[in-house]
Amino acid sequence: MALPKISVILPVRNEVRSIGRLLDPLLQQTYPADRFENLIADERANDGTRELVERKAGSAAAVEIRIVDISVGGHSVC
Question: Which of 2, 5, 44, 45 could be joined to 71 by an S-S link, Cβ 3.0–4.6 Å?
Answer without folding.
Answer: 44
